[in-house]
Amino acid sequence: MSAPACRITVLGSGTSVGVPTIGCHCDVCESTDPRDQRLRPSVLVTVEGRNILIDTTPDLRTQALRARIARVDAVVFTHSHADHLMGLDDLRPFNFKQKGQIPIFASPETMTAIQRCFAYIFDGGKKESNIPRLDARIISDAPFEVCGVEFVPVPVLHGSQTIYGFRFGGAAYLTDHSEIPEASLELLRGLDVLFLDALRYKPHPTHSTVERSLRTVEKLEPRRAFFTHICHDLGHARAESMLPPHVRLAYDGLEIEVRGAA
Fold first, then answer.
1. pTM, whole model, 2 decimals?
2. pLDDT for the residue numbered 244
3. How does pLDDT run across 141-163, given as a tens digit for each residue?
4. Strand partners, 144
5. Cα separation of 9 and 255, whole Å?
6. Which fold is adopted by the domain 6-257?
7. Any idea where the domains of the chain sit in the sequence?
8. How many C-beta neighbours within 10 Å does residue 8 have?
9. How far is CA 188 from the centre of its chain?
10. Which of 64, 122, 177, 188 is the most buried (most CB within 10 A)?
């Protein structure tokens, strides 16, 4: 399947607690550089007028208003942690406007967590108020189609847990990974744009570091790479000044045009 060009909008580039972090007065948390203001991690993929959201963070309402998102045609979930999931109820306004269900795609484990956390959406009981109208679709390691675009699941390790990143055409989005298995690396060749987790410089048991993600970029040779899921250890300007020219830090509001792929 050929993949048309797309636009990726970074809705959030921060870690699970965001930046600034509550109660912190470090230089990054008190920075006046808007690129150091990081909501929880998510991107919007726009292809031929269709909007595909990757993860629904607790900041979804703020992200949608800031990015002026007029519609959401589908949601794809990487995993079930709170910073990637807990904004799901904020899909309701899109249901109102679009007058239909929104398909959501997730692994069996993630879908089980969604249905547990948001039982009122899925329990089939009569409601006195509006709830999100969702079409739950289970995914596996096999490619699947979203709005006419082939998404290829890329299994990665998030500590001891296996979760998904995704490749779509000439781009791939991998967040929350401490290790990328060799078989998954082979799914990431020939990319125009690659997003990678780069939490901080110091090692972390469930996330990649800047150094480790730079080694991944060197191995895969994408045309451009962007680091995301960034904590307050990294001030944008200084950290980016030490990166190769084709590797940048993602920041909230960044828009990237991605080439189509044959």
1. 0.96
2. 98
3. 999 999 999 999 999 999 999 99
4. 151
5. 4
6. Metallo-beta-lactamase; Chain A (3.60.15)
7. 6-257
8. 23
9. 16
10. 177
